[in-house]
Design a protein that fits this description.
about 0% helix; 4 domains; mainly beta; ConA-like_dom_sf; Immunoglobulin-like; 14-stranded parallel beta sheet; Jelly Rolls; about 700 residues
């Protein structure tokens, strides 16, 4: 990792550095085993004399600071996509060095943490039988499995001499192309355990995906003794008595994903319990204490044949401890799906679009999914996804947010308009040039040098002259400059997506990471639920606000937001970069907000809002707190460590404006901010036109007529 830059823009004109880059900060170590307890030290963080270290960005409580030591947080470090004996690199927290009385610290560090996976299932005592879908599997040329040897040196093998009853290889079924073994009940597919597998005390771990939820599916069986998933998706164990456990909502055994089932049975008391994907199921109880010897995988006796794809099956001869179960569940995450992939070509079961065709717009239809902790919606970096993420349901709790993230290089583009968004007829040059005026709802954007660059010109509805069009490589092209490559010039025209936002505004516990969001005629994302997140995203070139959170406990951090409200020919909104509309407890940190038609950051109603470390440049009003007839005004807002730079053409001349309508019951704290006026002689850094109290300290201004406040 020597000298390596992660390239994460903080909106501070900075690049986060790793430990030994010349940032004035360093960490002594960045590797830790997955077996360590919470609070274990990862490494000591050093900073220049007189500075202290604070943690400004973390992921799910995985890291914490103890003094100046970076330590393991309260949550399990290991979830990822690595197998036994491997390692997982985890983006660590972002740390900043701060000094009392020194606003706008530029000393920032983000180490990359390597988690060494030191425990495999064989490292946990009592492993009796183990079958892994990619280890010891013997299949014929048709993929029919005839033998399956035990993994980790275990002695129990699976065999099937009758080809018609043999399960088959499911190639590339799991994460990273990992193969599975498919059991089909219609063909009575199962395997025989040789020798028979005894069980009294025990823990069974099955990593599998059911292929139906309408029939009993045996995982292990022998005569009247069995473990199976029932037709109602509960899990029944019989060690003398049949007892069911029912997985809870959002941790169910469904046909749309691979899950991890853990079953424990006490051979003395008969106590039986089950877990699915790390969550305890309801029910369970006394399943009996009769000794059993399982003889089948995928069959009870002559019924309940398996109908699933099996990725792993482990059997221990004792009830594992909670810590051991957590470890084996973390290991199992390398063998089950935790991600839904959305691609512009419509692959992986999603409704995408064909780049060679103008319609339909791409949308991610993910309704009915029961999401789990650590699940992610993955869009392909560089893809242009036109439309919205729709109808997410299930699993979205504070402990289990759904995260929309990226895979591959670059940011996926989720746009409210695209070259494909305009319906057209005829072939060039017979296409009507009047399309530019008739179909552009407010704005068209011209990408002169291709979609990887920012648009160089924006045209409003007021176009009066026709322009020449041609169609090349599936995109509408506009020829506005002689000598330009028609395949590079791209015209982006909003069509029927005018009022859509990227994602439903009402749902809670949704996180958006690492996306490029542009060309929505309404607000690009206005979450009104609870505990929503926008991080490391680019929002730009829209007719209304870039980001407008309401609800409560929203986190907007490490984003670039620009060119909002850039159409002066249509009234859709003020064009704020970030506009807080209601709720409480929002956090706006380390965003770069620039060149917006409205205020860079406007707080209209939010209480307890913390705005920290943001860089606001060249917006009509950098920071503004207002009141209107609908909103009572914000209370207890904190503005700390921001850099506020005024542009010469800005409409409102002050750095921070408290609106004249604000009531006396608000309290605003403004500390350690840097206000750069660039010669704005008729403005002040802080102007309080309201009745509330402004508690200002440690602020620095240059180029304004004065500090104000």
């Amino acid at each position: 990792m020597a000298g390596m830059s992660l390239g994460l823009s903080l909106g501070l004109n900075l690049t986060v550095a790793t430990s030994d880059a010349p940032s004035g900060m360093a960490i002594t170590a960045t590797s830790i085993a997955d077996t360590v307890a919470p609070g274990s030290v990862i490494g000591a963080v050093s900073a220049p004399a007189g500075y202290s270290v604070e943690l400004i960005y973390d992921s799910d409580g995985r890291f914490a600071l103890s003094g100046q030591d970076l330590v393991v947080g309260a949550t399990l470090l290991t979830p990822g996509t690595f197998g036994p004996g491997g390692a997982h690199t985890w983006p660590g927290p972002i740390l900043r060095a701060v000094k009392a009385g020194a606003p706008y610290s530029d000393l920032v560090l983000r180490p990359v943490i390597t988690v060494q996976a030191v425990r495999s299932p064989a490292d946990i005592a009592g492993l009796t039988a183990a079958w892994l879908s990619d280890v010891g599997v013997t299949a014929n040329g048709s993929g029919q499995v005839t033998a399956w040897a035990g993994a980790y040196g275990t002695a129990y093998a699976l065999t099937q001499a009758t080809l018609a009853n043999s399960p088959t290889i499911a190639a590339g079924y799991g994460p990273g192309g990992l193969q599975g073994v498919r059991f089909t009940s219609a063909n009575s597919q199962h395997m025989n355990i040789t020798p028979a597998l005894p069980m009294t005390d025990g823990t069974i771990v099955a990593v599998y995906q059911p292929l139906d939820t309408s029939a009993n599916k045996a995982i292990l069986g022998s005569g009247s003794r069995f473990l199976w998933q029932t037709s109602s998706t509960s899990v029944s164990l019989n060690m003398g008595s049949t007892v069911a456990a029912t997985p809870v909502a959002n941790a169910t055994l469904t046909t749309n994903r691979i899950s991890t089932l853990v079953v424990t049975h006490d051979g003395t008391t008969g106590a039986y319990a089950a877990r699915v994907d790390g969550v305890a199921a309801n029910g369970g109880g006394n399943a009996g204490v009769s000794a059993a010897a399982f003889t089948y995988v995928g069959r009870q006796a002559s019924t309940a044949y398996g109908n699933y794809v099996l990725m792993a099956l482990l059997v221990y001869n004792r009830v594992l401890t909670a810590d051991e179960i957590a470890a084996v569940e973390a290991w199992a995450m390398g063998r089950r799906t935790t991600e839904w992939f959305c691609a512009a070509d419509g692959q992986a079961g999603n409704t995408g679009f064909n780049p060679a065709s103008p319609k339909p717009a791409a949308q991610a239809f993910l309704s009915g999914q029961a999401f789990r902790a650590w699940d992610k919606i993955r869009s392909k970096g560089g893809d242009l996804m036109v439309g919205t993420i729709t109808a997410l349901t299930g699993g979205m709790t504070a402990a289990k947010p759904v995260r929309a993230m990226t895979y591959g290089l670059g940011k996926p583009r989720w746009w409210g308009a695209a070259p494909m968004a305009l319906a057209y007829t005829g072939a060039y040059p017979a296409q009507t040039a009047a399309l530019a005026r008739a179909n552009a709802l407010g704005m068209i954007w011209w990408y002169r040098d291709g979609l990887d660059a920012a648009p160089v010109q924006v045209f409003s509805r007021a176009l009066t002259e026709d322009r020449s069009f041609q169609h090349a490589d599936g995109a509408l092209q506009i020829r506005l400059e002689a000598g330009r490559d028609a395949n590079a010039e791209v015209l982006v025209i909003p069509a029927d997506l005018s009022d859509q936002q990227l994602y439903s505004i009402g749902t809670s516990n949704f996180e958006l990471h690492g996306h490029d969001v542009r060309h929505f005629l309404g607000q690009m994302w206005s979450p009104q639920g609870q505990r929503t997140v926008l991080r490391d995203c680019y929002l730009g070139f829209g007719c209304d606000d870039g980001h407008s959170p309401g609800g409560s406990l929203h986190d907007c951090s490490f984003n670039e937001i620009t060119a909002t409200g850039t159409s002066l020919s249509i009234t859709r909104g003020p064009g704020d970069g970030i506009s807080v509309h209601g709720g409480s407890g929002h956090t706006l940190r380390y965003n770069w907000v620039h060149d917006c038609l409205g205020p860079g950051i406007r707080n209209e109603e939010g209480s307890g809002v913390v705005m920290e470390g943001n860089n606001v440049e060249n917006c009509s009003a950098p920071l503004r707190i207002i009141k209107n007839a609908s909103y009572p005004g914000p209370a207890a807002a904190i503005y700390r460590g921001n850099r506020i730079q005024r542009g010469a053409g800005a409409l409102q001349r002050d750095g921070l404006l408290l609106d004249s309508g604000l009531p006396a019951n608000i309290a605003v704290t403004v500390t350690d901010n840097l206000f750069v006026g660039e010669g704005v002689a008729d403005g002040v850094a802080i102007r309080n036109s309201g009745l509330g109290a402004v508690n200002a300290s440690g602020n620095v201004q240059t180029g304004f007529a004065g500090m104000g406040g």
